[in-house]
Amino acid sequence: xxxxxxxxxxxxxxxxxxxxxxxxxxxxxxxxxxxxxxxxxxxxxxxxxxxxxxxxxxxxxxxxxxxxxxxxxxxxxxxxxxxxxxxxxxxxxxxxxxxxxxxxxxxxxxxxxxxxxxxxxxxxxxxxxxxxxxxxxxxxxxxxxxxxxxxxxxxxxxxxxxxxxxxxxxxxxxxxxxxxxxxxxxxx
Length: 188
Description:
By secondary structure, this protein is mainly beta. Helices cover about 15% and strands about 40% of the residues. The chain has helices at about 1-20, 120-125, and strands spanning about 25-35, 40-50, 60-65, 75-80, 90-95, 100-105, 105-110, 120, 135-140, 150, 165, 175, 185. The relative contact order is 0.11.
């Protein structure tokens, strides 16, 4: 009886190990790290390799901290199936209090020097918009008065140009250019 239990535990252990290592893993070693700052806060992005034997991807962890502090707060944590370089041009400061980051379908903005971040995810926020097929963010531009635009990547299966979203509050809320309200961001 003891042999059967040990063998069952061994088989289950191998099965669980196999699932996590072959079909999606956890964070592995640091592949790349990059940091930028303005006069009041810093943003750091760390890329971790995925521990997986088949098609390992990468995790991208965005963090912020006040200048002179090592007290880092996580902004967002993204996983991509295909590792890409850190998108340095997608981490921007509007002024000393306002900054924003975007990658893939995720966007985050702070209006208080990185202490809190409003998160917005195109896939989640646009999922009920049948006419919006592409949910990957191509470009975001925000002015010092809070007005801005978000352009999504083109989708070859969609007729016409991809939709543009507009903001008047630094990206805390977005409206489809056609005037349809997009749900508010989640503040963290």
